[in-house]
Amino acid sequence: MSQMDLGMSERVKPLVEKVRRMMQDEILAADAEYHAEVGKAGDRFKFTDRQNEIREGLKAKAKEQGLWNFWLTDSERGYGLNTVEYAYLAEEMGWCVLGPEIFNCSAPDTGNMEVLERYGTEEHKKKWLKPLLEGKIRSAFLMTEPDVASSDATNLDFKAEKDGDEWVFNGEKYWSSGAGDPRCSVYILMARTAARDSGVPRHSQHSMFAIEAGLPGVEILRPMTVFGHDDAPHGHMHIRFTNVRVPADALLIGEGRGFEVSQGRLGPGRIHHCMRAVGQAERALKLMCERSLNRTAFGRPLAKLGANYDIIAECRIAIEQARLLCLKAAWMMDQGDARAAAPYISQIKVAAPNMALKVIDEAMQMFGGTGVSQDTPLADMYAGMRTLRFADGPDAVHRMQVARKELKPYTNTKV
Amino acid sequence: MSQMDLGMSERVKPLVEKVRRMMQDEILAADAEYHAEVGKAGDRFKFTDRQNEIREGLKAKAKEQGLWNFWLTDSERGYGLNTVEYAYLAEEMGWCVLGPEIFNCSAPDTGNMEVLERYGTEEHKKKWLKPLLEGKIRSAFLMTEPDVASSDATNLDFKAEKDGDEWVFNGEKYWSSGAGDPRCSVYILMARTAARDSGVPRHSQHSMFAIEAGLPGVEILRPMTVFGHDDAPHGHMHIRFTNVRVPADALLIGEGRGFEVSQGRLGPGRIHHCMRAVGQAERALKLMCERSLNRTAFGRPLAKLGANYDIIAECRIAIEQARLLCLKAAWMMDQGDARAAAPYISQIKVAAPNMALKVIDEAMQMFGGTGVSQDTPLADMYAGMRTLRFADGPDAVHRMQVARKELKPYTNTKV
Amino acid sequence: MSQMDLGMSERVKPLVEKVRRMMQDEILAADAEYHAEVGKAGDRFKFTDRQNEIREGLKAKAKEQGLWNFWLTDSERGYGLNTVEYAYLAEEMGWCVLGPEIFNCSAPDTGNMEVLERYGTEEHKKKWLKPLLEGKIRSAFLMTEPDVASSDATNLDFKAEKDGDEWVFNGEKYWSSGAGDPRCSVYILMARTAARDSGVPRHSQHSMFAIEAGLPGVEILRPMTVFGHDDAPHGHMHIRFTNVRVPADALLIGEGRGFEVSQGRLGPGRIHHCMRAVGQAERALKLMCERSLNRTAFGRPLAKLGANYDIIAECRIAIEQARLLCLKAAWMMDQGDARAAAPYISQIKVAAPNMALKVIDEAMQMFGGTGVSQDTPLADMYAGMRTLRFADGPDAVHRMQVARKELKPYTNTKV
Amino acid sequence: MSQMDLGMSERVKPLVEKVRRMMQDEILAADAEYHAEVGKAGDRFKFTDRQNEIREGLKAKAKEQGLWNFWLTDSERGYGLNTVEYAYLAEEMGWCVLGPEIFNCSAPDTGNMEVLERYGTEEHKKKWLKPLLEGKIRSAFLMTEPDVASSDATNLDFKAEKDGDEWVFNGEKYWSSGAGDPRCSVYILMARTAARDSGVPRHSQHSMFAIEAGLPGVEILRPMTVFGHDDAPHGHMHIRFTNVRVPADALLIGEGRGFEVSQGRLGPGRIHHCMRAVGQAERALKLMCERSLNRTAFGRPLAKLGANYDIIAECRIAIEQARLLCLKAAWMMDQGDARAAAPYISQIKVAAPNMALKVIDEAMQMFGGTGVSQDTPLADMYAGMRTLRFADGPDAVHRMQVARKELKPYTNTKV
């Protein structure tokens, strides 16, 4: 009788094996070529034919083998994998940016599809969920805003106002990841539907909407950059809405229930992010080990010099621990009590990105100049990973959650 | 079908619950009183009546409930617990020094009993194993030597020479933990039986012996102290052997097979140490949380000041990760491939004590002066834990093992 | 024209040289013998003849060479050394516990002498200051209390009440360092002279007193221990006062001016502590280097194994930085603007003890078991240094001060 | 009499003040505009008119005020500033990339000018040194090679062979910083002039040359990128030399004396880099403080949340310590004993970039997503600073130097 099985199930093992083989044998190399193509179509946010060919070719191949939509947990249409099983796949897919998309498991689409499945109308499902499940369109999640500390989401100020049968949106969103993709067709968007001083409770002042991308009044102001990268053609867009009108049924579940949707959406998303972070760390450690054996200085391979053994060991120890914690958080989710799982998700949300950054940084250092250059993927990996220390909540907020939970047994009063 | 079950089995759950209750309700308080008695018998290495009463009373109570000899993995006489199951018990017992002895699960006895069971003669078993299993006598493990870097155990130089039907021992051992206990009746001892330049392979120059404690020629020179503590009446003794003679059958398994015995002995022992370290960390975190809520400065409970939430959260995150890694190492052992388990044991041997020291240190700091004083157990906990960064191999040696394993797939030549 | 001279002046160089020679050649060895004598007089808080002989012999020798009362900055009776000059001497004297006393530069006497000189009556000076300057008696500083978070000193609750011509004291103090010394003759003591809710401003509710040690009603409850050490015969005493009566002139400067005195007292004291911490770190690094060259494992001196070069280098880098910051804080004090110097003192108060602990800890690890044992001074050094992270204000409070100062230029409102 | 004056001299104070004002009031803003122009001339390695206008306008203004060529230490043509004085200026100029060039104090020009002044022919001086001193041309230093671990410079394999009256160069160099600048007219280049197995001592197998940029046979293969930045138009170029011929007098000082030149060149250069790193850290801390006060979450400014005070304080403490160590290293250089100064330079070369990275990283975290985006300079600062952990020698090599020096007094044999 299994109590806390964190291993790979027999069911998922062959899937992991196939995904791993495809990642290592094809997708890592394809990813490099794919990203080297960016901009060759004139506009960095357009695809070249070669990009379409690479991506769709790999997707077709994955689909053909049934390596598709793994994230559909407990669903008839998917494998019905649990979170622990999915976590192992996420790690493999996370070795490079292109990975998850090939298997239709990319952020923010997976979370958005869940939202649409759970809360969308039939029309929403037909129009957006179906093509998303087929990998034909993409989506974005519009939450963060430029003018407020979005780490405290009750600050969000982007406005949705009811006007007859329609909702009217005004405000700015940024870090809208994926909104740059020319295929992006739908936004899941959080907006304030009650004023701060309306008397409505602070956590019921916001609502979630599903709206068509690129409606009149929507201006994409610019891509936000990450260490100078625009991450085209995905993009983290800064978007302005001016009197953008959508039909009443764009509202999901009900007015004032935005946090309910966002919380349900973010939990699994954080675990996926973290397991991909573990994948990134494994990749960095592999590169570090290879370099340490292939490069010679002072007459010996780097591995044998100074602290390098210790560095390699510390990286391995850190990876193992973070992976296990991530699997435990996944397992907690699978137990069905989201409230109980939450502090574990916060824990790993702090631990995994910091661990991965450390490993990538050590790998960089083993490579010297090559480590920050275009000759290794390390700098891109570092930049991408660095955002994970605030995306979906900064470290400090997650630590606050963990501490609150920790202190609860010792106090009757709210801490 | 369980792949890597790191949870508590149904079988062990009630045991853990009982041990926890006994530890929290009785043994923690008894431990304080027990250690406060040290020295009152005149000699710090003698027991007072009150000590005997406390200890034997608790042991009887534990035995009565069948909470005894948990470490006997896969044995008819014990529960046949696997290493993962035992690990959960070790964590609970590890909250204080007295804990493990109450359940007859103390180091170095558990390891020594395993050695006697596996390699001892019938005579050995009758004379030492049986009373050890009954908690009537105690034992010591004599390995470390003062004059060589014992972290590289091939350096060990204490001599055993065959003289007719007897072995003759000459040399010094120190950090012989438990040798100070007046009940200590048997030493498991590693000695050099082939000279360095004998042509015998380096890992076959040593042998393991089981010998009676306190034979003629054995002088206990002094207890080694740990941050000034002699850890009486257990004691980490410095012992000199001068022409100490024992019968031929003191030799276990065979000449030159000392490392085989010590390796088999140290693997599980390290896991036990590490899980007890997790228990220590949990205790420190509990103390820290309580203090942070009960103490006020600048008008607020300490918990709400500065970085204290972050500190508490980081401690929790660190504990969770170390525990999981420890459980994984235990699970690896249970798979039966010691070679495959070894690097995991090395990983946790580095990770757990460093984690526990960090948590204990943060707890101290939350308490201020009280944290290093007799008014909390923290300083004793710190001192004890500090030794675990070199006992059974220093961090650096374990990191070396981890790195070697990590680099192996990338090289054909030995690194 | 000197702007920020952090070097040794020509004047202080020969003093440093003489102190160093005496420390290295005589006092380090004497310190070990001196502390080994503790308890041999029956009572750990009594001196043996040998202790008196060692200590007074060295003091006489130091005095003879004029190596005495260096701390008397800008005084006719001393060398008139500035704080930077004194800092170099403090580092040398700080290598072992006995060091400062030999040169009559011990805490808490130096600070107490300054208080008496500045604020004492003629009677106080005659009775206590003169023999203190001559090294004939010793003193204690009674500030910290068991029942409140003394890190926020406005919490202090020990009461002094005026009753006719006398003050009457009631309450408990602990961590009263030096109060265990049989020669201790005077206490400088902080007491609450206005109730919390008296309407008196929070920083004017306390007053400072100079009172005779051991008056009727004073009970020494116990020595507080530090990692189990009672630091006898110096001692950090827990003392209870019950209706202890002293004459009116025990009050220094004036009612409600306790913080004024304590602040003036603590600034230089913190710098002295920090420079002694630098001395401790230098001693630990020296021991570490020697060990790394004298001990062999895996066929090479420890120095050449793994990360040891890196560890040694990091220790050296950390020491250099902390020393320089300490010297800068000293130099700031010498500029005469205590307010401007304060954040530098807070900076070094955080940096120096943490640095020294790290260096001592690394030294321990290089020694293995020997590092925590009686065979090296490292564990005692660690224990002593650990208290410096809360003595005279915990890290967190000093960091708060530094941050406040840092943020000030960016805000008009108080942060 | 000054012993170790690390303060600003009266002489340099007004210079620092003027440079600071010009940096803060003009150059920081100009730097942003200047870099935003990159690429607008079609080729990223060409300047736009606006760039020329910005840069030359500021240079003219600086020159006019005599803020020019500060690096010319002890020279009739400069201010004759010593290294400590220059260090204070370097810190101010280091706040942004454009800073140093405005005052003709950029790397690698300053080092190259020193080389030309000391070892160049009259012809070299006329052709290159004069226009460099006037800010009319720029230069590059070609040392690092793609195919060897250049951290051990004896590995360098780029070949220079004597052929009659000429030297013939073959090989590749990369990370040739500044070689992308269209004004770059001269390369200082290190080449192997004796084969590894020639019997020539290992440190005499290389020679230094001054050669015209862009000769026939020189191909610029690509700019190396740093976290994806090509750092155009400066550029870190990868260059291939195929039978490039230069006249005999291109050889500086003498065959086999390459290390002599490079060592002399790198010492001060490292100090300059480190003081600029201190400037970068100050800038990051300023941004962090402002953000912490201007941004609100959970109803309070970020500064007042969680660990933010502690983070700000730790950054200030780290900056102060690194600056002081840098000033001490500078002061050591000014004492004229390069051998004695070397370990201090290694110390700061490890300490300063790591400190600056930590501060910049914390600043990023305070800003959340904005911290890695184009809306703050932090990500660019981080990327640039990250290279300093291997440029001019990786941390590990510098730590090795520090440890060697540290261990020397304890051993007679070479460690």
TrEMBL record, chains A, B, C, D:
Protein origin, superkingdom: Bacteria
One GO CC term on file: cytoplasm
Molecular function GO labels: acyl-CoA dehydrogenase activity; flavin adenine dinucleotide binding
Domain Acyl-CoA oxidase/dehydrogenase middle: 140-239
Ranges for domain Acyl-CoA dehydrogenase/oxidase C-terminal: 256-405
Entry annotated with the keyword Oxidoreductase: yes
Pfam families per the UniProt record, alphabetical: Acyl-CoA_dh_1, Acyl-CoA_dh_M, Acyl-CoA_dh_N
Keyword terms: FAD, Flavoprotein, Oxidoreductase
GO biological process: fatty acid beta-oxidation using acyl-CoA dehydrogenase
Cofactors named for this entry: FAD
Coiled-coil ranges from the UniProt annotation: none
Subunit and partners: Homodimer.
Family named by the database record: Belongs to the acyl-CoA dehydrogenase family.
Protein name: Acyl-CoA dehydrogenase
Organism: Litorimonas taeanensis
